[in-house]
Design goal:
The chain has 113 residues and is of the alpha/beta class. It has a single domain, classed as Alpha/Beta hydrolase fold, catalytic domain (Rossmann fold, 3-Layer(aba) Sandwich), CATH 3.40.50.1820. 29% of the residues lie in helices and 29% in strands. The protein contains three helices and six strands, in the order βββαβαβαβ. A six-stranded mixed sheet has the order 1-2-4-3-5-6, with helices on one face. Helix 3 links the parallel strand 5 and strand 6. It is globular, with a radius of gyration of 12 Å.
């Protein structure tokens, strides 16, 4: 597990394996364990535990929003050295992926919803 510091909060990031990079997010109340159960092997998976989820802190910034979560996820993709990636997720994570693809269409090569 890696960490990412944004706006004074420490966020947990998982970066597994090698291969096609997929940024894949958990659902509301979930975390790394939820994603690990649903995501197939054989791909490089980057998962950020969103603020207030899993091992990530809450921070002071409010209100939480899809825009905030998407910005955090994009920062994790930047930290992982990804210029272009497939985005996806479970439930809330799918909404974050969709938000990313609408705001950053040149970065998102595809969606898994």
């Amino acid at each position: 597990m890696d960490t990412l510091l944004r706006d004074g909060v420490t966020l947990r990031v998982t970066d597994t394996s090698e291969g096609q990079a997929v940024v894949f997010q958990h659902g509301l109340g979930g975390g790394e364990a939820q994603v690990a159960q649903t995501f197939p092997a054989g791909f490089r998976r980057i998962t950020l535990e969103c603020r207030g989820h899993g091992g990530s802190g809450f921070g002071e910034r409010r209100p939480f929003s899809f825009e905030m979560f998407a910005d955090d996820v994009l920062a994790a993709a930047d930290q992982a050295g990804l210029d272009r990636f497939v985005a996806g997720g479970v439930s809330m994570g799918a909404a974050i992926a969709l938000h990313l693809s609408c705001r950053h269409p040149r970065r998102v090569a595809g969606l898994i919803l």
